[in-house]
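Quick one: sequence plus flavin mononucleotide SMILES, need structure tokens.
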Amino acid sequence: MQALVVYYSMYGHVHQMAQAIAEGVQEVGGARVQMRRVPETLPDDVLKKMGALEAQKAFSDVPICTVEELTSADAILFGTPTRFGNMCGQMRQFLDATGQLWAKGALVGKVGSVFVCSATQHGGQESTILSFHTTLLHHGMIVVGLPYAFQEQMRIDEITGGSPYGSSTIAGGKGERMPSENELAGARFQGKHVAQIATKLSKP
Ligand SMILES: Cc1cc2nc3c(=O)[nH]c(=O)nc-3n(C[C@H](O)[C@H](O)[C@H](O)COP(=O)(O)O)c2cc1C
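Reply:
Sure thing.
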């Protein structure tokens, strides 16, 4: 079972979640995982003004994904920051380049799952994940979320991301908050859960 974690991160929050997702995948025997970033679409001077260039150095070694690579995976876990309640433009542009794969039905039957980050608690995590699912369904993917079997998504003793739609983290208005232990645990659970399902599906 081969899993691909494909994400965009501007300041590192989604990147940390992606690492936890990959750790979860690796908990499943026989599962292999690769991490990929989607191509950047913003010029360096814009990224510099947004204060992102320095943060992105920490994960610049993660290879850039090609659309063809999606075909080699049994499961694809997509990570995106929320932008106005939707996925970021970088991810949208990457997905909009998958028309050839759609035409061939190349992703039909693969497991797809989404995790996110937003600045605020109610800033659109669920709308980002659910609207992302539309694209996965057009590709014929089997959509998997974060079941309540990960009970810690119900915590109210601390602020936490995570919903049945997928794991998530809250960055704060200035990006000052990094993923909490609970949010990282949710991401690990999602990675493992997706890998277990994809392993069952990939058995002859
Ligand atoms: C153009 C733009 C739009 C954004 N829209 C939202 C939003 O709708 N809701 C929200 O809570 N945060 C919003 N954010 C904050 C990002 O979601 C946040 O910076 C991001 O999730 C941090 O993750 P990263 O470090 O992996 O990029 C927005 C940020 C930008 C730059």
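The chain is about 35% helix and 15% strand. Strands lie at 2-7, 32-37, 75-81, 111-118, 142-143, 168-170.
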